[in-house]
Amino acid sequence: MIFKQISSRLVILIKEFFGKGHERTKNVKKNIFASFMIRGLSIMISLMLVPLTIKYINSIQYGIWITLSSIIGWLGYFDIGFGNGLRNKFAESIAKGNHEMAKVYVSTTYAVLSLIILVVVLVTFIVNPLLNWSRILNAPEIMKSTLGQLALIAIVFFCFQLLLNLLGTVLTANQQPAKASVFNLIANVISLSAIFILSKTTHGNIFYLGIAIIVPPVLVLSISSIWFYTHKYRVYAPSLNYVDFRYVRSLMGLGIKFFILQISALILYQTSNIIIAHLFGSENVTLYNIAFKYFNIVPMVMLIIMMPLWSAFTDAWARKEVKWITETMKKLNYIWIALFVLVVIMLILSNMVYILWVGSDLHVSFSISLALGITIIINIGTYVYSIFLNGVGIIKIQLILAVLGTIIYIPLAILFGKMIGIPGVILATSLINVVNLVFFIIQYKKIVTSRAKGLWLK
Question: Does 4 map to a domain?
């Protein structure tokens, strides 16, 4: 009887939580909850992949694979910002009830990105045979042929994945990021299953490992694109009849700005593996990556919360609903403080977690964990304010800071790395992001209080 009363009361509280507030707020809550469930499973699977993968190959080859996948991940920025440009333009069109224009933006983005990817694939087939991937990855020369073949296949598949990821952009722009998160979850499940089977049927092979990781996302996104664009999202399905290159400038005007921000993010977050590989060896890339995946759970939680908010801020700004924006930002700051406490707890428990997770053979130093903890907290702060600035499309100051950060980071990371080791490479990112955070906070306050002028409002 008591259990039944508690259950009934819990159901009522849940309904009240999801039923209260602005319609936009209710939609954000539902998507955050669904994303937590979906992304939570994805995080668990990605964590399970680490010890399974290391056991299948070894820590050195795992470090080589992580470095290779980081380099190939750079291709994600070859959309020249069109994905983020589409995200804002699609959200604006939906907010104004112009569904036909939304379809034009979708169709045009697919067309332009297809042409870009065609060029990248052709260049890859020409250039790849000339590259020595063993030297690039600081790997044994005996792996040159295998790494060359794996790099070629990975680049081609990643290019297709880049195009197919536009479905996730459309879903997120329509304030349904939870649906977009499902694709990654399914792909991770397939990869985990494939690597488990490989570990039981073959000896450690980095080529097989790569195929098991890079093929599933393309397969899942292909099937999902066909299903969504022939069902609920049929009205927005890309069509040659709706391709209008006159809108490329509109997409690219905003998109190119996001592209510069993406390149900056690439330099700040994706080159660490390469710097560590060349300064300290591939095995240390594995140690860094273990700590990174552990602490990266925290920003992934924050990104789950913020994912629906980019398009929600776009919608709110288009409707001049500043009060909703300020209330939402206040809540995000409370969450930032809570996550700071979580990082401290994770830092205290880090050594015990590493042993339980990947065993005692791989020792991650406390200094690496501390440096990552500091970096994560600062990064989350920049996420909170940049998501608002990105949503409203006021990013000129971000661009300036991004260019300066891009110029400074690599020499700074190498200098700090030589001075204090791997933690130095990590802390170079923190130093740059502290500066970014200060400017973002100032700009946000100026915008919401209508005091922003000149550069602060561009």
Answer: no
